[in-house]
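Q: what sequence does this backbone want?
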């Protein structure tokens, strides 16, 4: 399977085992393929936190950190306290080599996240071919009261009602929207994403 075919097939994946195996197989070529397509969302998520005056020493959990591209973006923006978790052990090996995380852990799809984080990021993670809408609940349960969730929904996720509906559910339950901006995701293949930051109720 060549690199191009990974990106072509990812949005059709269903089930955590299929996702884990797919990303394990993709791990060696993932960075190159998304870079070739102009992957812009990680830097946009980091910039959203900067624009909201998030302190650079805030503890951030990078949920679904993959190969660590998002962690690199947060580091380049100035954030220093990063941990990462992911389903794929092979993706985590790539992330470990980047040296941007204080700690990295493999998790199961149904596993609760450790608390103690004021910011949790899910950059390109919740959506078609990746984490299901219920992952949103997992993140919000782990956040500290008043903590911030920075995440993105790409065009494929925005086109499936269950993903925007999950955001609206949490906003209706008391979370506060702080940031929302539609912009480039993978511009070379004309896919965009909306970056959001929401704040958990105190």
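A:
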């Amino acid at each position: 399977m060549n690199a191009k075919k990974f990106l072509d097939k990812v949005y059709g994946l269903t089930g955590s085992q299929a996702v884990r195996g797919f990303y394990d197989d993709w791990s060696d070529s993932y960075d190159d393929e998304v870079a070739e397509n102009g992957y812009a969302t990680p830097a946009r998520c980091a910039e959203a936190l900067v624009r909201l005056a998030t302190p650079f020493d805030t503890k951030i959990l990078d949920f679904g950190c993959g190969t660590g591209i998002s962690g690199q973006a947060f580091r380049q923006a100035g954030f220093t306290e990063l941990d990462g978790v992911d389903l794929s052990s092979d993706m985590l090996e790539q992330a470990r080599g980047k040296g941007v995380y204080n700690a990295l852990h493999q998790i199961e799809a149904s596993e609760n996240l450790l608390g103690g984080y004021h910011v949790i990021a899910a950059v390109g993670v919740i959506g078609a071919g990746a984490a299901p809408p219920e992952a949103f609940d997992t993140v919000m349960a782990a956040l500290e009261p008043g903590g911030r969730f920075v995440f993105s929904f790409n065009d494929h996720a925005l086109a499936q009602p269950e993903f925007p509906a999950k955001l609206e559910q949490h906003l209706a339950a008391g979370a506060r929207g702080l940031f929302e901006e539609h912009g480039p995701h993978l511009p070379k293949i004309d896919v965009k994403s909306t970056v959001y930051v929401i704040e958990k109720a105190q």
